[in-house]
Amino acid sequence: MKSHSHLDVTSQVGADTVQSFHWYEEVPNTPSLRPRPDACGAMPTREPSTIAAYRREYCGLISRSKPDADADDYSRLLHTIDWFARQDGAWAAATIRKYGASLRLAVEDWTLAAINTDAARISRLHFDLNSAKPAPRDRAQAPRTSAKKRISFTWDERKRLVSHLAESKTTTGRLLAGMIGVGALVGLRPREWINARVVGDELIVQCAKRTNGRGVAKERPVTLAALSAAQRRSLTRFVDRFQKEAAKVGVWQRFHERMAKALTRACQKLNIREISLYTLRHQAVATAKRYMTQREVAALFGHATVTTATRHYARRRGGWKADPLIRPSPSVVALVRQPDRIIGSFGRAMK
User: Fold this and answer.
1) Which of 26, 196, 205, 251 has the most CB atoms less than 10 A away?
2) How large is the greatest C-alpha to C-alpha distance in the chain, in angstroms?
3) What radius of gyration, in Å, describes the C-alpha atoms of the chain?
């Protein structure tokens, strides 16, 4: 790990081997870091982008643990795992899971790159990593910036923002007015508007989060049949304008920041407590919970299971008393997984 370049595994065992390495393979005569099924019993997989992100993550962890400069790869990895195990209270539970997964990949990469290594060393890495369980940060501590952001806003605030931004002299302001008007009801992730398209009575959305079994499908059709012809034309115009403006900017992050800053300025101008672009999705989820079943909500927003909206999004009580009229495709609803036990519930069955 001297170069911190994911152990040069691609050069030693071949790029094809690494690309096809989806989860923890058995190593002869050694214990296995077995995959852990999700809440619905499905075994997660890794996309190439996830593998690349985990490699960047574990290289960063190795650097932060400060191993001896002259240590070999095995010693560096063992030192990092020991350091990771001692970081009680340093991270949130989700961060600990992510770091643990990245270190599991580090052990896999090292094992593949060191095929002739003593099995005892491999066993030691596996044992230490499986035993590494740092305690998460105390929930009572002050939340980070993202945790302080609003996950819902009022119907009146929506009307005020749309009215103010629609009169803007800038293209960004007018586009943002459309995004607030539409996005808080449709609930796409901001980036999903880039590839969305209206086809007949459906809005076809490419799911932005599909790694590790998180997405319900590659694409999810949203049924627009209940919308009036004028509403559909308005949605089509917004999608077209959004994609043209994003293409002009060229870099998504720059375009996203431009929209986010405009929204912040509008909130400050109107003396509205600040919301973010992602607040629109949270609000749409909360509203959908008032009118749809759990599986319909999951399908509409691209979640593979019903637990995502239940645990991580705004609650039903924050939803607007305004049926968004859109519905998920029944074929996508059928793909949603439902655990044997659901913690909490929301909404009522759609009549």
Assistant:
1) 205
2) 70
3) 23
φ/ψ (deg, to 5) at 44: -70, 155
Strands, sheet with 197-199, edge to edge from the N-terminal-most edge strand = 197-199, 202-206, 219-223, 327-328
CA distance 320 to 273: 18
Q: What is d(CA 153, CA 155) in angstroms, rounded to the nearest whole number?
A: 7
Cβ-based neighbours of 8, under 8 Å, separated by 6 or more:
113
| Helix H or strand E encompassing 222 | strand 219-223
Q: For residue 214, count other CB atoms closer than 10 A to its CB.
A: 16
Contact 134, 85 (CB under 8 A): yes
Q: What's the confidence (pLDDT) of residue 71? A: 85
Tokens of 101: 């997964």
| pLDDT bucket at 183, cuts 50 / 70 / 90 | confident
Query: Do the Cβ atoms of 78 and 69 come closer than 8 Å?
Result: no
Note the pLDDT tens digit of each residue in 291-339: 999 999 989 998 888 888 888 888 888 899 888 889 999 999 998 887 6
- Domains of the chain from N-terminus onward: 6-131 (no CATH), 146-333 (1.10.443.30)
Q: How far apart (Å, rounded) are the C-alpha atoms in residues 101 and 96?
A: 9
In this structure, what DSSP letter does residue 309 have? H
DSSP symbol at 319: S
What residues pair up with 221 in beta bridges, in sequence order?
204
Only one residue has tokens 């949603």, namely: 336
Give the separation between CA 257 and CA 240, rounded to whole angstroms: 20
Average pLDDT in the chain: 80
Per DSSP, which regions of 106-218 are E strands? 197-199, 202-206
Q: 126: which 2 tokens? A: 């596996």
Tokens linked to 38 = 């999700």
pTM of the model: 0.60
